Amino acid sequence: MKQTLLLLFWAVAAAQAAEPDWKPIEDRAVTFLQRYLRIQSVNPPADSREAAEFFKKELEAAGFQPKLYVTDAATGKVNLLVRLEGKDRTKKPLLLLNHFDVVPVDRKAWSVEPFEGIIKDGWIWGRGAMDMKGTGTIHLFSMLTMKAMGEKPPRDVLMLVTADEETNGTYGIRTMIRDHWADIECEYVLDEGGFGSRDMFTTGGKLAFGISVAEKQAFWLRLKAKGTAAHGSQPIAENANMILLDAIAKALALPDRGNQNEVVARMRENLQQMAANKFTNAIQKNTISLTTLTSGVGSPVKINVIPSAAEATLDCRLLPGVSSAEFLSEVKARINDPRVTVEVASDPADPGASKMDTPLFAALKKALLTQHPDAVVTPILIPYGTDSVRLRQKGVTAYGFTPMVVDAATVATMHSDEERIPVSEFKKGIRIFYELLKSDF
Ligand SMILES: [Zn+2]
User: Fold this and answer.
1) What CATH number is attached to the domain comprising 179?
2) What is the mean pLDDT of the chain?
3) Domain of residue 261, residue span
4) Contact at 8 Å (CB) between 238 and 337?
5) What is residue 171's predicted lDDT score, i.e. its pLDDT?
6) Of 11, 189, 364, 376, most Cβ neighbours within 10 A?
7) What is the DSSP letter of 133?
8) Is the peptide bond before 104 cis (omega within 30 degrees of 0)?
9) Gap from CA of 233 to ligand 1 centroid (Å)
10) 3-class state of residue 66 by DSSP
């Protein structure tokens, strides 16, 4: 559509009514998302030039002035920032945060083309539909609709789309915080994290919307075992593989500490009955996953050689408030073997939980209930990491929230195969964010 035609589109959609004419807006948003899913902004290399231009065009046609930040010209990493002016310009803004990049696909495990934006059986399919092009498009269209309707949010609303969330945000959120903080300084952030579900959080098919207010700390460890090389025909006690296996078993034997986390306590209170699954299990305690094992001599590895060294990595996730230094010394004490070293491979951040009783949380709840009157809305803790942690470190109140109802099977398609979202939920999401931006916070 040409720019003048686009302007005309928004003029007709708004047409001085109290309520937007949703049908054409929703249709346009669905088409936009399909085209967005066709842009292969895979990370690595996280080349976001095409996606950023795609957003920029749509915004400029509606009268916005988006700004692009080229953070790595060699690989084409670009961030986009746009502002919708609010009524009270003295208040710090609300920042809507999403990302252009998506993780790679295992093409043969998909039943549809992952980069075609196909609509089938009421679902939009494609890499990034859940994580996070669907929500990014919802952010965008809620702002476009506000502008077209002549509505002003209570304070400025910014939307930041980053290039490389999927590889720890070096050129995305980290660069924006380090070099452009004045441009994005805000009181609130809405990011990914929580969502609505009938089976993820609670039992009996009750609809619960989880809004994440905190995340666990990613604490990564590398175990290295040293032994003696020998011929596989004659077993020895100093076999590095056996030393490592013993150390891993001891490291994994986490003591049961009970759960004192305040966010989880609030979840229990609101949900009454917590569902039993890997998600709810992970948010109630410290966890360790054995993620890699490296050993053997030669390539291909020799079956008849006992190696002198073996390595494993442990992805430990600690509850907010747990000291990583203490956790580490407990792991070392359990292993208690001079032949095994434990190295730290990540630097966990623990800014704690964002406040749960804020005008924004109340406004979110109200906006959600307009589309899902039967929902329980609760703060949640999430087991994985998001960009929100960097913003919480800057003192920002950050909530993670995908405005769609999805089941556990759909959530599991993130970073996996057959990623998709229900078209109807995507459309509701735009209305939820529009309601939110119009309300008081
Ligand atoms: Zn994401």
Assistant:
1) 3.40.630.10
2) 95
3) 217-344
4) no
5) 97
6) 189
7) I
8) no
9) 49
10) coil
* HSE value, Cβ hemisphere, 13 Å, CA-based, for 54: 21
CA of 138 to the centre of ligand 1 (A): 14
**Residues 99 and 168: beta-carbon distance below 8 Å:** no
Strands (E), 44-201: 67-72, 77-84, 94-99, 119-120, 123-125, 157-162, 188-197
Burial (Cβ within 10 Å: 0-12, 13-18, ≥19) of residue 209? buried
**To which residue do tokens 């992805």 refer?**
315
d(CA 131, CA 313): 26
Query: Hey, what amino acid is at 401?
Result: F
CA of 135 to the centre of ligand 1 (A): 10
Tell me the pLDDT band of 4, cut-offs 50, 70 and 90. Answer: confident
Query: What does the alpha-carbon distance between residue 121 and residue 98 come to, in Å, rounded to a whole number?
Result: 27
Whole-number Å distance between alpha carbons of 383 and 217: 8
Residue 9 lies in a domain: yes
Residues within 5 Å of ion ligand 1, judged at the Cβ atom:
131-132, 192
Centre of ligand 1 to C-alpha 223, Å, is: 29
Residue where one domain finishes, among candidates 344, 371, 386: 344
Predicted structure pTM score: 0.91
